[in-house]
Amino acid sequence: MKILYINALYSPYIAGGAEISLKLIVEGMQAKGHEVVVLSMAPGEGLRKEQVDEVQVYRAGLKNRYWPFSNERPGKFSRLAWHLRDWYNPAMGAYVKEVIRLEQPSAVSCHNLVGWSIAAWDAIREAGIPVVQVLHDMYLLSPDSTMFKNGKPRNSQGLINWLLRYRHRQQSAKLGAVVGISHSILQRFVAHGYFQGIRQYVIHNARRIPEARALRLRAEGQPLAVGYIGTLSGVKGVEWLIEQFKGSGIDGQLHIAGRGKSEDEQHFRELAGDDRRIVFRGYVDPAQFYPDIDVLVVPSLWEEPLGMVAVEGLANHLPVIASNRGGLRESVEDGRNGILCDPDVPESLGGALFALWRDVALYNRLASEARPSVSEYLDITRMVNEYEQVLQTITANDTTY
């Protein structure tokens, strides 16, 4: 089987977990004897081909107003114009047609389509090739990919999102299959009427996560090193974490690792003020970060599609405090390997921090269960095999094209 994988980015361009997972899937399928080709975007113009770790990768220059994967936030008008063009971008669909003509794949696996638009779907369907759509975020529901506004996740699309996405819902029923990286994200789309009448699957992402931090039990009276690692943005709950840490009354430090938009980083530093217990560490390799902390906090305010950072923390024997939203509820089990908090009850986060600082027995029990609880997410072979089964099913039984 020859598979074309389409995603916004591909290594070494990495914006998030989708790119990490995709590389593992692509290389895993190639190791199983399948032919694989990747089509992604990159700064610049035109279509060029290269090899990335023995995988053939096409890079397409984005035909839109600006490159969206930077730390600068364009003005409101520019963003609106970008999204209007991204509603349906035939110029990007032309790239897909060209690569299909050159490579003649037997199946296409679409991942994050931001920048490509669903013109990619039409190009694939015109070629009569079965396609599976993998859901890593809310892009097909909302142009900003989050379904989040005014500090809260949105249950309805709203008029603007509906206008920019009504065609996406209609066209989604013409695909071969859909895969959600969590039950949460798949059901979110199904509840909005997407992917009706087609095969639906859930395949949890997997990672190769070595133990950078050994199991370390706590003793009475020790300070608690709290950690956050990821994008520094409001939707990720960084402000909530800083405020609750400052008011928790625990003896410890808060280590914040990651980068974000420049204005967001400045806001969080101002919020931390002169509290020397809060340390901003910038970009840090997770393998160097996890040994420095005792508990990981994933305080996302939006509906995280999965939240692999929580899995990374658990795999390093860290109890995880996470918000009870989205896919985080599928890896963080309240009372087994961590504590779930409710963003609508802000003090629940401060209470969880205090509990893990004060109750050593609770901490040690959760830490001892952490890595064993995520064994599924550490099994890359399981993930690759499940994707292979989906592709084999849609190519063997396809009647759509």
Automatic annotation (TrEMBL):
InterPro entries: Glyco_trans_4-like_N. Gene3D superfamilies: Glycogen Phosphorylase B. Keywords: Transferase. It comes from the Bacteria. Residues 16-205 form the Glycosyltransferase subfamily 4-like N-terminal domain. GO terms for molecular function: glycosyltransferase activity. This is Glycosyltransferase involved in cell wall bisynthesis.
